[in-house]
Amino acid sequence: MTLLEVTNVTKKFGGVTAIDEVSFRAEAGRVLALIGPNGAGKSTMFNVISGNYAPTSGTLRFDDRDVTGANSVAMSRLGVSRTFQKIRLFKALSVMDNVVIGAQSSAPVAPWRFFFGGGAVRAAAAETRKHALEMLDLVGLGDVGDVRADTLSYGQQRMLEIARALATKPRLLLIDEPAAGLNQAEADGLVRRLRLIRDQGITLMLVEHNMDLVMDIAEDIVVMNFGKKIAQGAPREIQENPDVIRAYLGEEAMA
Amino acid sequence: MFSSLARQQWVRSSLPVLVAAVVIMTAPSLVTGSFWQRVIILALFNVVLAMSLNLVIGYTGLLALGHGAFLGIGAYTSAVLTTTYEWAFWAAFFVAGITAAACGLLLAVITLRLRGHYLAIATLGFAVIVYQVLMNWIDVTRGPLGIPGIPTPPNIPLGNGTELDFGLPAAHIYLAGAFAIVCYVLIRRIVNSPMGDALRAVREDEISAKSLGIRTFAWKCFAFTVAAFAAGLTGSLYAGYMGILEPSAFVLTVSFTLLAMVIVGGAGTLVGPVIGALVLTIVPEALREVGPEYRMILYGLALTLVVLFFPQGLVGIGAALRSRFRSSSRSKPDEPPSDSTGTGFAKEVPVDAS
Ligand SMILES: Nc1ncnc2c1ncn2[C@@H]1O[C@H](COP(=O)(O)OP(=O)(O)OP(=O)(O)O)[C@@H](O)[C@H]1O
Ligand SMILES: [Mg+2]
């Protein structure tokens, strides 16, 4: 089943065409990697899918619904959650509160009802905390729930962003460069945890420059360069695709 | 039976309220001079004003500077309704709150696209406009002449044949005190719930908040409206206590003083603004003894020192001392993070490497 369908999406910033007529599909329950050299338009694509930017043209369908132009609040409520390439945590809040805030958005009790209290509300609050703690445990931060988010190491902050996004109970999770700045041990842990997330039935979309990691976990790959989609396929096909090799050879930054 | 945890929570949430209630009940017999009774009443009004402004500034992170305007709107609404239109006090009280809240919502919708300096200036502009309206809409407000003869709240029968007589300052202390306690409890309900979390999320990072499904614009409007509502109600009590209103009571300085109370006490904390309001109302009056020429200098100096050395406010001093004491006496696991605005000594987060 197709969960997300991107059709002929273009995104322009003034004169810059960050995405140029890109189409692809993300199949439910699979891991799709979006790769390409710096400036290819990957993060912009995430911003379009998550509703942070409206596409200049083209359409987006999520779960068989037209969601073109829906904003990020709406997309979140529909079940699209994300992390950010440049980490955006609630820095002055505790690790736990970061995730609780994510979990509340999927809670059955609206925030204003807490003003009046009552058993249902208390039960919902307990459930939210329990869910948040599960998410923290899943990313290995169960022990540090009480510390301020900005005291975590860089790698931990990345994991916290994933936990916070997961807490909204998304159907599609967009993760932008989760391995950036992680050491090898942390990157290995990341792969293991991404698999756990996938095994929960959550569709994953991943932007990542670490090719070992991508080839390890991705089931489908979309390659972008200069805003255009240049290839799409299984990891093995992509590794042998001459267009992809050419795009990356021009990029010395890629190891 | 309470479990011990439930009892602990009950004590923690009820104790401050009980202590405050006892202090207020005994205040009129402890402080008998009319000058200091008046200071107490004004301090209690300021407590509510600072607490409500803190909702906007401390929790939601919006630098709104015109809070005194809502006090003025509430006070004048109440005064006009009870004098010109001879409304009952309590009816005017609620309409004063609702009028201020409506103005707060309107201001929010107009200005909340702006942030930081721009929002500050727009809200400042609002306060200037309100002051000018009070001065110049003479048909309604009587302008600089002011509105005299505002009735006090009606006396409240106490059951045992006596009544709470608003001809006496003690009754105003009780009323202002009860009002402050109710506001404290309700604001605490907001702040210690997912509503407070939503406000903090807006303060910390709006883009993240939105991508977690939080309607940030609605929450900012909510904070503005609730704060304005509380200030409007306070204005009505203020009018009922003073008996006479003049526009000069709502100059910009009022808004700045309220801002100072929030910051000096500790923005984004529950008790901070309470302490800030009490200290910044009572200390300047105490300094009158020092002589008028030094009073405002000392006051300004104290403000500067607190902000320089205790950016988390007066409550930050207590927290710092406590954690120092603890870490020297025995090692404890990490303290829960203080719920600050993050304007203090937040560590820098490494910027993305790519
Ligand atoms: N908000 C914006 N305003 C203007 N230009 C932008 C904006 N966001 C992205 N761009 C431009 O769009 C192009 C694609 O940027 P994008 O961030 O999507 O690349 P990327 O593939 O994520 O690169 P990287 O691997 O370096 O993160 C770049 O030329 C970038 O400068
Ligand atoms: Mg990017």
How would you characterize this protein structure?
The complex is a heterodimer of chains A (255) and B (354). Chain A is an alpha/beta fold and 255 residues long. Chain A has helices at residues 42-49, 72-78, 95-104, 119-138, 154-166, 184-199, 211-217, 235-240, 242-249, and strands spanning 2-13, 16-27, 31-35, 57-62, 65-66, 80-82, 172-176, 203-207, 220-225, 228-233. In chain A, the strands form two sheets. Chain A has a six-stranded mixed β-sheet, sandwiched between helices. Chain A has a four-stranded antiparallel β-sheet with strand order 2-1-4-5, with helices on one face. In chain A, a hairpin with a 2-residue loop joins strand 1 (2-13) and strand 2. In chain A, helix 3 (95-104) runs parallel beside helix 5. Chain A is globular. Chain B is mainly α and 354 residues long. Chain B has a domain at 13-251. Chain B is built from 14 helices and two strands. A two-stranded antiparallel ribbon of chain B has the order 1-2. In chain B, strand 1 and strand 2 (163-164) form a beta hairpin.
Short note summarizing the structure:
Helices cover 37% and strands 24% of the residues of chain A. Chain A is of the alpha/beta class and 255 residues long. Chain B is built from 14 helices and two strands, in the order ααααααββαααααααα.
Describe the protein's topology.
The complex is a heterodimer of chains A (255) and B (354).
Chain A: E1 2-13, E2 16-27, E3 31-35, H1 42-49, E4 57-62, E5 65-66, H2 72-78, E6 80-82, H3 95-104, H4 119-138, H5 154-166, E7 172-176, H6 184-199, E8 203-207, H7 211-217, E9 220-225, E10 228-233, H8 235-240, H9 242-249
Parallel strand pairs in A: 3-8, 3-9, 6-7, 7-8
Antiparallel strand pairs in A: 1-2, 1-4, 4-5, 9-10
Helix pairs in contact in A: 3-4, 3-5, 4-5
Chain B: H1 4-30, H2 34-59, H3 67-83, H4 89-111, H5 116-136, H6 138-141, E1 156-157, E2 163-164, H7 169-191, H8 194-204, H9 206-211, H10 216-242, H11 252-265, H12 272-286, H13 292-309, H14 314-329
Antiparallel strand pairs in B: 1-2
Helix pairs in contact in B: 1-7, 2-7, 2-10, 2-11, 2-12, 3-4, 3-5, 3-10, 4-10, 7-10, 8-10, 11-12
